[in-house]
Please model this.
Amino acid sequence: MKSLFLLLLGAVCGVLATVLYFTIDPTFDSPEADGAGGGNVSLSLSEDALSSLIARELPQLPAFGDSPQVQTTVGANGLIKIDIIVGGLGVGLRSGVTVNPNIVDGKLKLEVVEASLGELAVPDEIAQVIEQPIQERLDSLARGAEYRLTAIRTTEHRLTLEIQI
Model:
């Protein structure tokens, strides 16, 4: 009887320990943004939103054709990796660029970290084509008022920009 009681007590403790292990966050990371930028307006773009935004802008450069396929990965390390496929099935060309979003004089500046574009385009041209529509969205959020970009966050596969108006 005593052995059965100890077996049941051990099973209950095991179940309780398993539930606690999977429900308590051992890193103590909060899923909420810390708001450390001091901005009063935020623009948040998911990877899919960035991909569609970039795909709409790339045809400005002649080497990318009318409908390039774009896949964007926003890393927690602050880098944004952009994979671009130009052409059709079997004859497509895969290229990519990795950018680091920075704040320069209160505005967004994308710095090219790595590029494998071949003969398609100069990496800085790609960065400018990507930077322009994001900057336009920040301008529209400010509604003509002066503003400064105060924070850039790349968490949960999203690019979040905070501005202070």
About this structure: The radius of gyration is 23 Å. Helices lie at 2-23, 47-57, 123-142. Residues 125 and 153 are 23 Å apart (CA to CA). The chain has a mean pLDDT of 82.
